Amino acid sequence: MEDIRDLVAFNVDDGYIEALVRGYKSSLLTSIDYVNLTQCETLEDVRMHLNGTEYSTVLQDEPSPLSPSVIAEKCSAKLVLDFQYIRSQSTYPLTKFLDYLTYPYMIDNLVLLVTGTLHERDIGELLEKCNPLGTFPAMSTLSIVSTPEELYREILIDTPLAPYFAECVSFDDLTERNIEIIRNVLYKAYLEDFYQFCKKIGGTTEKMMCEILQFEADRRTINITLNSLGSKLSREERENLYPSIGSLVPEGTWKLARAEDVQSVHSILESYDLFRRLLQSSADNPGKSLEDAFIEYEVQLSKKTFEQQFHYGVFYGFLKLREQEIRNILWICECISQRHRSGISNYVTIF
Amino acid sequence: MSSLFRSVEMVKVRLFIDRSAARATLEELGEHGLLQLDDLNQDKSEFQRSFSSDIRKCQEMQRKLRALELSVQECFPMRFQIKEEPISREELNTVTLDDLDKHLSSLEETVQEMNGHWKSLNSHRQQLLEHHYVLVLGSHLFRPGYLSLLKSENQGEEGDGGRRDNIRLMMNGKSNLNPSYTPVDIESPFLRLIAGVISLESLSLFQRLIFRVARGNCLSRFSEIEEVFYDEEKKENVRNCVFVIFCPGKELGRKMEKLCETFGAHLYPLPDDEASRRSLLAQVSNRLRDIEAVVATTHSQRLETLSEIGAKLALWWKKVSRELMIFHCMNMLNYDTSRNVYIAQGWTPQDQLGLLESLLHQGCQIARAQVSSVLEHRVSDSVPPTYFRTNKFTTVFQNIVESYGIATYRELNPACFTIITFPFLFAVMFGDVGHGLLMCLFASYLIIFERKFANQKLNEILQFCYDGRYIILLMGIFSLYTGLIYNEFFGVAMNIFGSRWKFNASSNFACGIDNCVDPSQSLPPKNIYPIGFDPIWSQALNGLTFFNSYKMKLSIVLGVAQMVMGIFLSYLNARYFQQSLDIFYVFLPQIIFMNAIFGYLVILIFIKWSIDWNSSSCLSNPSCRPPDLKQILIGMFMNPGSLDMQLFPGQKVVQILLLVCAIVSVPWMLLPKPLILRRRYKRLENSAPWRQQVIHHGNEEEKEENAQEQDFGEIFVHQLIHTIEFVLGAVSNTASYLRLWALSLAHSELSQVFLEKVLYGSMALNNAFAVWMGFLLWFGLTIGVLCLMESLSAFLHALRLHWVEFQNKFYQCEGRKFVPFRFEE
């Protein structure tokens, strides 16, 4: 029933932007482009090749010599511009959906700034490193706060992250450990909230996005477990950080909370088909970590969103694929500039 | 004209150019646009080619030019709106690329330095200015009675008007301090005073955060600066605002300062006693005056330098983009290392070979090359590109045809027929002398001031009209003609020569002036109206029926004529390409089919027109009634033997004969061509046994045969589709031409309705104002609806008639356009 509603009413508000995003998608670099890029000798060659792609105008005003970070920065600036254009053309609930896509960047920026302030780094320098998709008001003023309570009361209250932060107000001060916990709590709350939101939208969007978000939640659960092995984090604390959605809930998370070493984590994951496959693929290729396998699977999921029409998943997919593409370009450029030719093909081919 | 009829003959040439002469030769070629270069390095990627470093250099120069242009544009925003004068080649040759590169680099450095200097100077000035404002506006806060003034302002009473001219005070509404305590607090040493300037944009967030950080425990005042500052970083104007914060305690004060810092606010000292404030203000004003003088001189210097650069920018741009194009072309050349020559290959018009050779020679002379270039003809199995030489008059017609498809090489070009038929068919739908006159005037205006418009940047719609000015003129002229035939002038019938009919009120009939023997009978005049319709028809009750009958028949006649011409053109094509199969098995049955049915219909129409149905002999004969032509045509198919009404002797036999011809021509179209082609293949196969020897592998042979079988199937299906399309198309296309009638009916009815309801309606009110308004409304409708919308729809219908009904009879349009290497104007 809801599928039919999508079919009939989707294009009224969102048809144009969906078409736009599909256009953006078709301009992503292909495997031939990547092969050509890896053959480049210098970054000038990269610029020349990128001139013939979607990125033709982004580098034209950059003086030589180029650096990999400048190339990546300019490419992300284009992504931000495209995303903001889409955002400005959208109407509720798509606007809200697109906002949800920016929250993870906000969390990352928040953590980056707070950690940076903790180490007394220059705020201007930190601001440059922030992801422009995750800007929020008063971001620069983060350096004046010293406790989570102040952080909440003075700054986050204006941002959409405020409801997620409620649990963290009780922390006494901002230590590195607490910040890491705050990040995970925020992420957990965000994932659950986004999941509920997608459920509320329903239809194909629900189908596509819930699968993606569940995978995202599982991935976080596994990463939290792996990172907290051997740390002082208690079992309850660890379990508290796990998102309450995902295919691992409840049995897998209960077991993972009690896992003591990497081996036991792997044996728990073995009983899930998807994770067994991912573990297998990372075990088969020596240079590939589990995280790489996750990224590859994420790219696959993002590509899958384009196989159906009339849903919001394409916006998520587009954002993730473009991001991955920029990471690929950055990787290739780094390899070229550091003359590290052997690892140059370790990028994730998208199309 | 011959070049418009069929495309120019092309030859493939290969040029061997001496290494040193390559660049000069390409420049000559680009100047004349003679050669479409083939890419001889297709297997190499962009950065593997020999001139990619030069291309990179050019792009780098373009980047520098863009940067310079940006600086110039900032200072002279008006400069770029004028179209530049064309730059001559001699002028271009005064600069060389290397010199230009060096020059640009040094210029970029200078400009950057200058801009940096300017920016720092400006920001210094801005800071002083801001400090000035802080001192001026901030000191209001210390005036005795300020707080009571505030209080009265809050109550909505008018305070000191003179002072409030240039300051707007904003209360921090959340501040809960009791005003009566504040004057004491200002003097207290524990109270920190922070003053500074912040941009108006971030003000509200700033206020909120001040409140939150101090938990309402501070007093803040803001007042907007009237002067607009220019932000050099963001390249836009910003409004700023002076703020003064009083907060208790050192700790809070420090935090507040940090907050200000993170907001990018500039803090300035604001002493709390009057005397030091005054002296500081005087100091600041002095320095401000000094710096203003420096700023003024720097500004004039900057303007001077930039205007010098700006004057040359266009030249440099052109030079660099030309060089870039040359290098792109050089990248397509092949280099022969053994002979030190570049090899270029491409298509060129055959009749320009002489010019090409002289250009090659010239190129060698300019470069002083030792070895002269060689031109060699190549035999190529690929189809040459299509090239029509057009002038400013024919271009638009060629474009109309080409937006449907590019003609196959050497195929007949429909554009040369379109020049006349298009405006004519348009006019058939748009026939009105008044509207045609307006159109002519508009087009003539565009044509007379052609030069002036060419140098201007026009908006999109006007540009569209400008490009099509000649077609609009022709459409207008033809509309004048058809309007004269239809006898319409803005919907009014023109009675120029005096109507030849006389209306008889007693019998409600009209009869010819010179033939009014019996007033009860409507006899036509013997001397008819000299041109077009008699004006009385627009008054007659049966006028509409009369017009409809005429226009409907006319559109069939025109349509069939155009389609038959299309079929004949396919004959000319077939003869030119020596395809006898197409002549005998496609053209012949097609022309027979078309003429047997619709050609016959046209003849019937003329016969019906030529019979005098009012003659006394006919009137006395009861069987002499005008027949329904549709009935005749349908009857010809449904029951061929019978005939209700005979128009000419032997009609029955003729009809049966035509029917047989039409029926026979269908299988004639369908079968022989594919069958003959198949037999030819078979014969070719038998007569070429060597072919089978070459292919000894059995399965490969099979494959070959399969391919041929498929070929035959494909040809057959193709022919089948063609036949069906033609047979059905003959009917539907003829019907499609009835749009001529429909559109022209709609046009005349609309113009009449506007005339009667709006103009005559307002005249009937007997009120000068109403008439004036009515006229305006009618005029607006005439221009907007009749002249613009109706002409657009008539244009589109004429376009369709040409693209579909006319061109599908003969136009293959499988060619590709000839795109020579040429420097853009």
Give the topology, please.
The complex is a heterodimer of chains A (351) and B (825).
Chain A: H1 2-26, H2 31-38, H3 43-51, H4 68-89, H5 94-118, H6 123-129, H7 148-155, H8 162-165, H9 176-201, H10 203-228, H11 235-241, H12 251-257, H13 262-269, H14 273-284, H15 290-305, H16 313-337
Helix pairs in contact in A: 1-16, 4-16, 5-6, 5-9, 9-10, 10-15, 11-12, 14-15, 15-16
Chain B: H1 2-5, E1 10-18, H2 22-32, E2 36-37, H3 52-75, H4 89-93, H5 97-139, H6 146-154, E3 169-171, H7 182-187, E4 191-199, H8 203-214, E5 219-231, E6 236-248, H9 250-262, E7 266-267, H10 274-330, E8 334-336, E9 341-349, H11 353-367, E10 374-378, H12 395-402, H13 415-429, H14 433-448, H15 450-454, H16 460-467, H17 469-486, E11 501-504, E12 509-512, H18 543-576, H19 580-610, H20 616-620, H21 629-638, H22 651-670, H23 672-687, H24 689-694, H25 698-736, H26 739-763, H27 768-806
Antiparallel strand pairs in B: 1-9, 1-10, 2-9, 3-5, 4-6, 4-7, 5-6, 8-9, 11-12
Helix pairs in contact in B: 2-10, 2-11, 3-5, 3-10, 5-10, 8-9, 12-13, 13-17, 13-26, 13-27, 14-17, 18-19, 18-26, 19-22, 19-25, 23-25, 26-27
